[in-house]
Amino acid sequence: MTSRGSEAPGFPREAPQGNGSAVERVPDTVDTPGSDLVTVYWRPGCPYCAALRRGLRRAGLPTAEVNIWTDPEAAAMVRSIAGGNETVPTVVVAGTGLVNPKVSTVLDAVHAVAPDLVANTRPAKGVRRADVLAVLQWIVVIALVVASFAVEAAGHAGASWAIDGVNLAIFGGFRLLRRHLEGNRAPDTSTRRGAS
C-alpha cells in the first residue's frame, strides 16, 4: 500500500459524530459492512473532493463522509493528518491517513486491510457499455456531419441545417445515456453552497 499520509495512532475507526449533521453516509451503503472502515473528510466546493467521492461511489465502496466545515473535530482531525493544513479530501482507512489520494490509492489501502470488501468493488475488466456507446456516438456524429456537408454542397442549405439539428439532438441523447450507464444520476451535493 502506498500512501502520502501518515500512520497515526488513535484515529477513530468511525467518523467523529460532532453535532450529528456533519456525518453523511453515501446512499445505499448505510448498512453495508465496512462503511465504518473508510472515512472521507471533505468540504463543499472542493472539486477534488467531488471527484474522489464520485469515484468511490462508482467503485461501490461504503464510506462515512464528514464535512469539515460543519464539524470542528473533523477539521482538527484533518489538520493532524495533513501537517496543520485543512487539505481535503483526506481519507482515513483503518487508522491510516491519506491526503488527497486517488480512488485507486484508497481502494489499495482498503484492500490491504479488508481484501474481501474491495474484491467486490473493483470494476470488471473489459469493454463497458458506456465505452461502446461513446464510439457509436462519434461514428453517428461524424457520419451526420459528412452528410450535412454533402447536402449543403448539393444546394440544400435548409436540409443541411435540419441534419445539424438532428445531430445535436443525437449527441445530447447519447451523452445522457452514457451518464445514466456510468451511474451519474445521483446529484453530487459537494459543490453546492450550504451543503452539509
Structure, described:
This protein is an alpha+beta fold and 196 residues long. It has two domains: 23-123, Glutaredoxin (3-Layer(aba) Sandwich), CATH 3.40.30.10; 129-182. 46% of the residues lie in helices and 10% in strands. It is built from six helices and five strands; from the N terminus they run ββαβαββαααα. It has helices at 47-59, 72-81, 103-113, 115-119, 129-153, 157-182; strands spanning 23-25, 38-42, 64-67, 90-93, 96-99. The protein has a five-stranded mixed β-sheet, sandwiched between helices. A hairpin with a 2-residue loop joins strand 4 (90-93) and strand 5 (96-99). Helix 5 (129-153) packs antiparallel against helix 6. It is elongated. Residues 1-32 and 184-196 have low confidence and may be disordered.
Condensed summary:
With 196 residues, this protein is an alpha+beta fold. It has helices at residues 47-59, 72-81, 103-113, 115-119, 129-153, 157-182, and strands at residues 23-25, 38-42, 64-67, 90-93, 96-99. The chain folds into two domains: 23-123, 3-Layer(aba) Sandwich (Glutaredoxin); 129-182.
